[in-house]
Amino acid sequence: MMMDKAQEGQQQSAAARVVHSQVRRIKQEEDERVKVHETYQHHAAEMRLVLRRDLGRQRSRSPLGRAARPGAISIGGDS
Hints:
The radius of gyration is 33 Å and the shape is rod-shaped. The chain is about 80% helix and about 0% strand. The protein has helices spanning about 1-60, 65. The protein has 2 helices and no strands. With about 80 residues, it is mainly α. The longest helix has about 55 residues, at about 1-60.
């Protein structure tokens, strides 16, 4: 009877280790997904800043700013 309880305890312990390793693997995969997501968010934020800066340069309301772009129409008498 004592051996049965000892064996049962060992089986439960082994089952707990299997579950524990599965939980550890799932948590590790979740952490990796979070890191990938954070990296993506960081790169997306950088790209938004770059695009916003570049678009700000393109939309100049000044005639001088418009003249600097290729294909600008001359307002004065120069062709």
